[in-house]
From TrEMBL:
InterPro entries to which the protein is assigned, alphabetical: ACCD_DCysDesulf, TrpB-like_PALP, TrpB-like_PALP_sf
Residue list for modification N6-(pyridoxal phosphate)lysine: K63
Cofactors: pyridoxal 5'-phosphate
UniProt entry keywords in alphabetical sequence: Pyridoxal phosphate
Gene Ontology terms for molecular function: D-cysteine desulfhydrase activity
One biological process term in Gene Ontology: alpha-amino acid metabolic process
Pfam families cross-referenced by the UniProt entry: PALP
Species: Rhodococcus xishaensis
Residue ranges constituting the Tryptophan synthase beta chain-like PALP domain according to the UniProt record: 27-329
Gene3D superfamilies: 3.40.50.1100
Protein name: Pyridoxal-phosphate dependent enzyme
Entry similarity comment: Belongs to the ACC deaminase/D-cysteine desulfhydrase family.
Length: 338
């Protein structure tokens, strides 16, 4: 074991050669809690990894884990502005705007239409209060067409803005869930939970699942990943997710990490579109039912991501193999009081 401070990221403690080459800022408290959802499901083996608690600012959840690695990279590039994309109810865009502002970084967001409900209206109002510059580009095609103009418009100090894909799902962003995979392994080692059979997570832009694949592999766990697709506007099949995990592995190696051999192809990955419904942002009957069950267990679920993930958890818990090993849902929804 190295001499890095206990509050430093596990990636730095495991690979101290990354401390200088891959900087990190702490934006939330770790580890996030685990709890067994007693009485849920047919086999009583459902657990929650509660990343809704992660984040010390005005929004929480999985996006903030990504920003712990993204923000230092923005600063290292001497950029003064982030430009990114998302739906008009984007959790990612809100988190980016709020946390980047703490470091003197401006944020601009190209916003694509999605079905509007109370959740989306509330989130759009938060975006409008966040200080971000909002560009309503409406469609994916118009966003792509407007990209050169938007990049030039947001030049600061002679530098182009730092571009981030939807959800912050770059290799740098995926490090947030490499870290979370190592964290889960430490909780297993500490006896907080038996080694899970599966982690069930939403996949909207891919970075969370890709990071988990790599983190669980680095940790040596036999845990598989079930990816519940909630976004039909991006390619999010098994090949896409493994490719992002490999690009994240390549990033770590280029920054100096001595990883040894890693076989990501042998990681069990199931990608399901069974809970997507008509498309991104649309509510589903299964999701609404999951929200009602979630309320009984004290778990607020949003209709776009975690309600559909919870519905997937219930099916995996009932039907999957793995004996009595836990099935863990990653709760990535991080609302905060306005």
């Amino acid at each position: 074991m190295d001499d890095a401070a206990p509050t430093s990221p596990r990636l730095h403690r495991r690979f101290p050669e990354l401390v200088e080459s891959l900087p990190h800022v702490r934006l939330g408290d770790v580890p996030t809690p685990l709890r067994k959802l007693e009485g849920l499901g047919t086999r009583n083996r459902a657990w929650l990894k509660d990343d809704s608690t992660f984040g010390s600012g005005g929004w929480g959840g999985n996006k903030v884990r990504k920003l712990e690695w993204i923000i230092p990279d923005v600063l290292a590039h001497k950029s003064k502005q982030i430009i990114t994309v998302g739906g008009i109810g984007t959790n990612w865009g809100l988190a980016a705007a709020l946390y980047a502002k703490q470091f003197g970084i401006e944020t601009a967001i190209a916003l694509v239409d999605q079905p509007v409900d109370d959740h989306v209206r509330a989130q759009l109002a938060r975006l409008q209060r966040s200080g971000a510059t909002l560009h309503f580009t409406h469609t994916k095609l118009r966003t792509v067409a407007a990209a050169p103009y938007l990049m030039l418009r947001h030049v600061r100090g002679g530098r182009l803005p730092y571009y981030l894909p939807a959800g912050g799902s770059s290799p740098i962003g995926a490090l947030g869930y490499v870290e979370a995979g190592l964290e889960l392994a430490a909780q297993v080692e500490a006896g907080e939970i038996p080694e899970p059979a599966y982690v069930v997570a939403a996949v909207g832009s891919g970075g969370t699942v890709a990071g988990l694949l790599l983190g669980l592999r680095l940790a040596g766990l036999r845990t598989g990943v079930v990816a519940v697709v909630v976004n039909d506007t991006l390619p999010l099949g098994p090949k896409d997710l493994r490719d992002l995990a490999r690009r994240t592995e390549t990033l770590l190696r280029r920054r100096g990490a001595k990883l040894g051999d890693i076989d990501l192809d042998s990681m069990e990955l199931t990608v399901t579109r069974d809970y997507l419904g008509p498309g991104y942002g649309y509510t589903t009957a299964e999701g609404r039912a999951a929200q009602r069950v979630g309320e009984e267990f004290g778990i607020p679920l949003d209709p776009v991501y975690t309600a559909k993930t919870f519905a997937g958890l219930l099916e995996v818990e009932a039907t999957s193999r793995g004996g009595d090993r836990p099935i863990v849902m990653l709760d990535s929804f991080g609302p905060r009081t306005d």
